[in-house]
Every structure is written in structure tokens, then in C-alpha cells.
Amino acid sequence: MKLSRSRAVASRHHAALRQVAGWCLQYPDEAVLGKLGLLRACLDETSGPGHAELCRTVAFLEQGEPGALASHYIEVFDRKPRRTLHLSWFLDGDTRRRGETLAAVRRFYRSQGYAPAENELPDFLPVILEFAAVADPAVAEEVLSRFHPALDLLHRNMSAMDTPYRDAVAAVLATLPAVPVPPPAVPLAELVGLDPFPTGGGR
């Protein structure tokens, strides 16, 4: 019984941390910056792996000037595809297969009763984290585990930058079981084709 309760508490903390990370990784507009007090309060009620890293990201957003925050976000995530928050790029690259993966992810969301905003692609990390925060813990783990290689690559590609957003990605990774990571010498082309979701058949 103690183990079951411990797992339930860990699942709640993971869900809260993923939801906070999802907000932190969105473009820092008024809606995001206006929620910083709520995000900080949420962090004050959580603990466990990823907590310290996410606290650093929230502090960065709290202390930053809106214009500078916006410029930094664009520099980190929008200048280079290798640092994109659209995780299917790490799995499929800029290929037709990526469209099939996106359709499969969207079908999976629908099968779980979740409908992301139409103006967001379903592989956008904040969308994935929003889903993982509200989904059954086992389903959340399934989705995030399938994107784990992409998260690892994103985190690695951010390592050369001095950015607190790397802490937010690290916080998400800290909520997942460790898995072997391809060595840095492996080019992206060799990773394209990892299959996070079945892309054929089914509705």
C-alpha cells in the first residue's frame, strides 16, 4: 500500500511539473507571463526530480523584461531546426513521413478524448506536456517515452547555449526513466525513422 501511495504522489508531482514546464516553454507573451505567479505557487506545492531545474526557468521568466524574453525565446527555438520544440522533426526530419507522424499523434490524442488547439501542431512540446499533465499516468508515460529520444536530442542541442530553457527540458526528462542515448557522433539522419507512433491504419 505504501508503494502504491508513493507512486500516486510521484505521478501527481510529475503531472504538475510537466504542466508548469509546458507553460514555461511557450512563447513568453502576456498570457504566459501573467501566469507566472500561479506557476510559482504550483512549484511551491511540488517536489522531486526536475523541481530545481524548473524553478530556475520560472525565476528567469519572473526576472526578465518582456521584450528581452521574447527575443531570447526566438533565438533559442526559432533560429535552428535542431532546437525546435516540434519533436517529430527529430524523428522524421523534413520529410513526408513527418506528416504521417503528426496525423498519428493527433489520432492518438483523439482516442484519449483530448483535442489540442487547431492552431498548434500535435508534436509541439507544450502541447505534449499539456496532454501528459491531464492524461492517465500510464498513457502520459507512453507518449513521453515515445518522444524520449527527441527530448534527449533537443536537450543535447541546447547544451551549447546559455539558456534557462534548457533547464525546463531537463526537468521534463527528469520525470522519465533514463534510457540509453545515441552518442553525439550519430548524425540526425541515422535517427530519422524512429517510430514514436504507428503511422498506418487505425482511426
Q: What's the β-strand tally?
A: 0
Number of domains: 1
What portion of residues is helical? 55-70%
The CATH architecture category equals Orthogonal Bundle
Which outline best applies? Answer: globular
Q: What is CATH's topology name?
A: TorD-like
Secondary structure layout plus pairing:
Elements: H1 2-24, H2 30-33, H3 36-44, H4 51-63, H5 66-77, H6 88-92, H7 96-111, H8 125-134, H9 137-146, H10 148-157, H11 165-174, H12 188-191
Structural notes for this entry:
The protein is mainly α. 62% of the residues lie in helices and 0% in strands. The chain has helices spanning 2-24, 30-33, 36-44, 51-63, 66-77, 88-92, 96-111, 125-134, 137-146, 148-157, 165-174, 188-191.
For the structure shown, list the relevant keywords:
203 residues, mainly alpha, TorD-like, 12 helices, 62% helix, globular
Question: In summary, what is this structure?
Answer:
The chain is mostly helical. Helices cover 62% and strands 0% of the residues. The chain is globular, with a radius of gyration of 17 Å.
